[in-house]
Amino acid sequence: MTVSRRKFLTSSSIGLGAFSLSNVQAKEPVPDKWDKTSDVVVVGLGGAGASAAVEAFDNGAKVLILEKQAKDHLYNNTRMSGGGFHCPDKDGDPKALKEYAKAMFSGENIPWKSEGEQAEVSDGLAQGWADYSPLNAEFLKMCDPEFHPLPRKANGAAFKNFPGAIESHYRAYSSSYSNKVNRYNAKDKPKAEKSRGEAFWNALYNGVLTRNIEVLYETPAQKLITDDDGAVIGIIAVNGEKKIRIKANKAVILCSGGFEYNKAMRKAFLEGPGETGWAFYGSPDNTGDGIIMGLAVGAGLQKVGKAAARMIMAVPVMHHGLKMGLDTPVVGSKNSILVDNYGNRFCSETKVIEDPSRYMFYKEAVHMNIDDLTYPRLPAWFICDDQLLGKRTLTDLGHSTAGFGFVPWTKDNQDAIKRGWILEASSIEELADKIKAQPDNKDRMVKENLVTTIAKFNDSCEKGSDEEFHRRANTLGPINQGKFYAVPLVAGGPNTKGGLAANGNREVLDWFGTPIPRLYAAGEIASALKFVYQGGGNLTECIVYGRIAGKNAANLNNWS
User: 141, 174, 135: which is closest to 155 by C-alpha?
Assistant: First the structure.
């Protein structure tokens, strides 16, 4: 007797313990009549979705995009980002570029690495990166000839000791429509003034709009439809209260983002306290929808707990029962330090905000004290004085949640003080008392520790040398003037990275490593960057793997 792949997957729990895929979501019957038909259906209009749609269209496919957000409120992670992306020089060694990519993705080509993060698929992923990433600036300009990529002079390969780092001629770029990067938010500015994530997104979106690719806004995807052999042949979306059954002649590409605002997934997958110990500063509409749909048709998972994250502010602006995060670029600045709940420094603060450590620093945040089973650095406390707070805005008003109006914040920080998001005191002793009174501190702050810590730090500033944590001398500045301030920081950043298992062709894989026919994924829903992360990596893979997914999907034969 022959058993179809679908029937085997929904009845088997081999390798999954008690988990049964049939419990995730009941199989949707193949409809007798479809409401719409397209060759390729793309779920999610972010950087990956736009890149996939453009590439599929340019390869001759009819493309339909499903987007859950409204057209006039299309704020995806790509648009809310800093707009940095990688585009290695074309004169670099392609073999070296592949090796550097493999090291970032999996690490198995690094002698001291004990185990590759995703060795089964890393070679194909790295080859795709080597083939496509040097073309990224060219692709963006193809989408919009007015786009102006700006090479960053001092930002090549972040991991200098990785194989291929030098020979690949690695390079990162900023996004703009002029010869500079504007620090203000540009979402309502003329195109000529757009920069950062707004510019990067505008270029890709222009590529979609100029091709007249159909987009159904306010139409979240809900379920994948498969045939008896498990091939994905369509999708159900919802517009208002109406279900729309859409046939995909060739394939469905999932580009719906991560699970930053799915409380259940965060608690299940993220290290430490997934609900209260984390925050994210990207789109609150990233709720893991595509991961749920993929699981329902037998998709496997890869390194789901991975995130592009460090330590950031979290404030009680709630979405889906979770606090919103704020990009916190001031960490590591002069006249500031970072302490744990007991008032002790635990790191060189510049590691929180600078490559290569910044997007892995969450590992320090979720450190557990196994003696008393606590998380001493959740939250950690950013401490500064008027020398910093009077000169700089603690968050970034040019992008992220504050820049796009999700979180109110004023340039002078005063509104956040009035709201109680920033603690203010006239002395270090008073500040310690105010921290201790915060529920998240759980009565742990030791006043004497904080006083001693700041005195020791100020002494290091006077000497010009941080002998304890070796922070760079040019970032040292004492905390000793005016009022004193404290802000709680938790693990977090722009996005999660772990999700659906997928190979270099961007085919979604089941738990046994077999491609699910006609199902692809790109972007943070199935990020390639599972080992380490260099700033701008997620935008880079949006283009690289969005294009690969779009091209491969468009070149399939029609399902019948």
Answer: 174
Rounded distance between C-alpha atoms, residue 81 and residue 77, angstroms: 6
Task: Convert the pLDDT of each residue in 155-178 to its tens digit.
Answer: 699 999 999 999 999 999 999 999
Q: Which of 249, 265, 273, 348 is nearest to 304 (CA)?
A: 265
Whole-angstrom distance, CA of residue 41 vs CA of residue 215: 10
Tokens encoding 503: 């190979």
Phi/psi for 468 (5° steps) reads -80, -45
User: 146-151 — which CB contacts under 8 Å span 24+ positions?
Assistant: 146/177, 146/191, 146/192, 147/175, 147/177, 147/199, 147/202, 147/203, 148/176, 148/177, 148/178, 148/179, 148/199, 149/87, 149/173, 149/174, 149/175, 149/176, 150/174, 150/175, 150/176, 150/179, 150/180, 150/181
Dist CA 238 CA 279 (whole Å): 28
Q: What confidence score (pLDDT) does residue 26 get? A: 67
User: What's the rounded Cα separation, in Å, for the pair 501 and 112?
Assistant: 25
pTM reported for the whole predicted model: 0.94
Which pLDDT tens digit goes with each residue over 227-250? Answer: 999 999 999 999 998 999 999 999
Q: Where are the alpha helices (DSSP H) in 155-255?
A: 196-210
What is the 3 state secondary structure string of 277-323? CEEECCCCCCCCHHHHHHHHCCECEECCCCEEEEEEEEEEEEECCEE
What are the tokens at 108?
């198995």
Residue with tokens 């009680």: 316
- DSSP-derived 3-state class of residue 488: strand
According to DSSP, the β-strands at 85-86 and 172-174 are antiparallel
CA distance 247 to 48: 21
Closest residue by Cα to residue 542 from 132, 229, 89:
132
- Burial level of 281, CB count in 10 A (0-12/13-18/19+)? buried
pLDDT at 25: 53
Which amino acid type is present at position 380?
A
DSSP annotation of 212 reads T
